[in-house]
Task: inverse folding
């Protein structure tokens, strides 16, 4: 079963992702959450053990973050280049992603740091991040050929691009997107323009044809 998920990107990489048909894989040691992979309240000795326990997972895996909510203005501000970028909509195989759990407090540590505890830790973040409504795709880096220091995951039938939403402050046009997609057209990938709502704090679809990009 497929679910609809969204991926924000700033204008710098917005068209390159479409041209190459890929998304960059994030690494656990290069994210904006200082508590990534660290949901447990640990003492000094436990912290050392935990660091060793997750070392292989940090080195051998990465992830791609999606959200269920493209209309959240905070997401556009933080990840969509302040509305200058794009938001991609994907039809994603449900078995490929896990839903992030948000906790108001650090958790009591488990008695032993088992593989199950490590897998659980990947999917727990602070309550402060709950606006993201994140779903995460875990990626085994050993299965992907690196491009320099980076790893990318290709679009596929299980990660199928279905729509591109142009940011409300973006200079990117529908024609730019069609060119970047190449043989793909609006018959297979829909394109729409976003704007700020008039009566709520939400981002909505621009329906006025003369204002669509």
Result:
């Amino acid at each position: 079963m497929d679910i609809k998920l969204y991926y924000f990107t700033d204008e710098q990489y917005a068209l390159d992702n479409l041209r190459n048909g890929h998304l960059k894989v994030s690494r656990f040691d290069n994210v904006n959450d200082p508590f990534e992979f660290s949901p447990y309240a640990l003492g000094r000795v436990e912290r050392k053990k935990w660091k060793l326990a997750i070392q292989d997972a940090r080195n051998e895996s990465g992830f791609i973050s999606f959200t269920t909510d493209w209309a959240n203005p905070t997401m556009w501000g933080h990840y969509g280049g302040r509305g200058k970028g794009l938001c991609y909509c994907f039809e994603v195989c449900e078995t490929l992603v896990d839903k992030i759990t948000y906790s108001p407090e650090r958790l009591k540590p488990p008695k032993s740091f088992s593989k199950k505890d490590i897998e659980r830790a990947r999917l727990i973040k602070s309550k402060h991040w709950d606006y993201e409504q994140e779903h995460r795709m875990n990626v085994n880096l050993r299965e992907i050929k690196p491009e320099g220091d980076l790893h990318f995951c290709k679009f596929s039938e299980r990660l199928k691009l279905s729509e591109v939403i142009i940011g409300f402050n973006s200079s990117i046009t529908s024609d730019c997107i069609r060119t970047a997609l190449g043989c793909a057209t609006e018959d297979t990938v829909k394109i729409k323009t976003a704007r700020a709502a008039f009566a709520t704090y939400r981002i909505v679809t621009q329906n006025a044809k003369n204002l669509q990009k």
